[in-house]
Structure formats: C-alpha cells, structure tokens
From TrEMBL:
Residues 22-110 form the Cytochrome c domain. This is C-type cytochrome. Gene3D superfamilies: Cytochrome c-like domain. PANTHER family: CYTOCHROME C-553-LIKE. The lineage of its organism: Bacteria, Bacillati, Bacillota, Bacilli, Bacillales.
Length: 110
C-alpha cells in the first residue's frame, strides 16, 4: 500500500516538473501558457499584426517572442499605450489594467 502511494506521488511530482512557464524550450515566448485574460487581450488586439505565434511576420512588425530580452515592462507599457513606428497606440482601446497585464506577461518570461 505504501509503495503504491509513493509511486503515485512520484508520478505526480514528475508530471508537474514538465509544465511550461510560458516559453518554448528555446526561451521563445508562446501564447499557449498566457493567463486566460491576457490571451484574450492578445487575441482581440495584437494577433492581427503579431500573429498567433508572436512572430510578427507582417512587414516590419516586431517579433514578440523575445521581447522580454529587449524591453523592460515599463518600456512595453509605453509602447502599447502610445504606439511606435508602425504600431498604433492602444490607450483608447485598452484600460490601464489590460495594458499592465499584457506588458507584465510579455516582460516577465524567463
């Protein structure tokens, strides 16, 4: 009986170790592990230009897969809020809380 318990516990622990933190094996950010609310914001506002895989394959649109290596959370908030080069400003479309949640997810990938 004790052996069955330990085997079950070991299986559960090993399964938990393999869960993703939101990035692929190569450190690339993915949408799959984003919090539900953040994924919804991204799908409603960002996907058209930055693509489902965050690659930004449309013209000179920024690839977001490694944005956490290039920009701080504050810089991402600024970019989403006020736009940049070809990116429109989202301060009229998204609340400060939505922008903050999206920026936190983009910036805090390890």
């Amino acid at each position: 009986m004790k052996l069955a318990f330990f085997i079950t516990a070991a299986v559960i622990l090993l399964a938990a170790c393999g869960q993703s933190s939101g990035t692929s094996n190569d450190g690339r950010l993915t949408l799959e592990q984003a919090p539900t609310d953040v994924a919804a914001i991204y799908k409603s506002n960002c996907i058209r230009c930055h693509a489902i895989d965050l690659s930004g394959k449309m013209g000179d649109v920024t690839n977001l897969q490694y944005v956490h290596e290039r920009l701080s959370e504050e810089e991402i908030i600024e970019r989403i809020t006020n736009g940049g080069k070809t990116m429109p400003a989202f301060k009229e479309r998204l609340s400060e809380q939505e922008i903050a949640a999206l920026a936190a997810w983009l910036a805090n990938q390890q």
